[in-house]
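A further point concerns the way the authors explain their paired sequence and structure data. Each protein is reduced to its one-letter sequence and a matching series of backbone shape codes. An entry of this sort, consisting of the sequence and the corresponding backbone structure tokens, reads as follows:
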Amino acid sequence: MSQLTMSFAIEDLGGWLGQKLLPFWAATGFDSQTGAFIEKLDLSAQPSSEDYTRVRLQARQIYVYAQAHTLQLFPDGLALARGAYAFLLEHAWDHDGEGWFHRLRRDGTPLDRTKDCYDHAFMLLAMAWLYRAGGDPEVLQRAKRTIAFVDSSLGLERDGSFDGYTDHAVAEGEAIPLPRRQNPHMHLFEALLALYEASGEQEWFDRAGRILDLFKLRFYAADTGQLTEFFDSDWNEMAVEGALLREPGHHFEWVWLLHRYGQLSGDDSVLPIMEKLFSWGWQHGIDRRPGGVFGAYDELDQTGRVLKGGSKRLWPQTEALKACLALTERCGDPTAKAGSEPLLKSMFTHFVSFDHALWQDQLDGDGKMIAPAIPASSLYHLFLALAEVLRVLPDSAQS
């Protein structure tokens, strides 16, 4: 499948990434005066004037440009990633109490000092790839200080055993914030695998294993193949906005992450879980209506009923593509292998274009754009999915 049934070849993706997408977001998407990335662009491709940036956005962009440097897609990526990391280290690291703040003004002034688990997961991912790209020992040491903070301030125990993390740090004696979510745990799992791969240190992999155990116990329903999203303090599922939500994008994201775990560990026992998650997401979460936009819905309920009017963000499309690639690589799954091409074709028809470096971030059920801006945070999903296309599909076409 080196040549798709469309106007470009797989090999063209590398040129588009390295010559159009990454340079644009390194220039228009970066504030050279502050040394930080831009949070979002308006629909005319101008940087938003809103005076804030999220630490998770900076972390995601650091990851993208550090990996792009490592893959030799963007030689200036390491310098850019180091600059944004320096900005965060100066302004977002709590020099008095450890951990990373949630939001800053664009000049770096702390705007929200909340210590958020999701933010810390992406900071760990950013540091994993920054260390892998540049080898700076301070970065790895900061990652160790970060995970120590996560354990001490966000970690929970039940009967003396690990019981996951709370969404953000609270004062001693305060109730943990609800609902509890699987999502930050998923991204911690991603970051811990990346840190293990970057450093070779077993401790990171062992920590990832704890989250995998929690996934099997709390998040994943083996009888249905569904991934539960929201919980009360005792890990009972909670309805949100009157529904028991299922996100196809997260089903697909876990498929790819379990594949990465299997690659690093040699553990094939994750394959049946991958297959069940993919099967449920692919059966219920993909729009196949004649005349519709082929791709992954944003939200369903536990019965598979489509919610939010059938809207589709860009990021679930990228995760569906990654899941297809993961099962293609792991076991040659015919459904997954056949799914890569229409997903990629639909993405480049409805969400992104070879003509420019922008994207439509969300479409309604009729395929009309409804996103009011172009969030820079989607670059993380798009870049990783296309990097996986470049890595997997040429080899699978020859096998």
In short: The two ends are 10 Å apart (CA to CA).
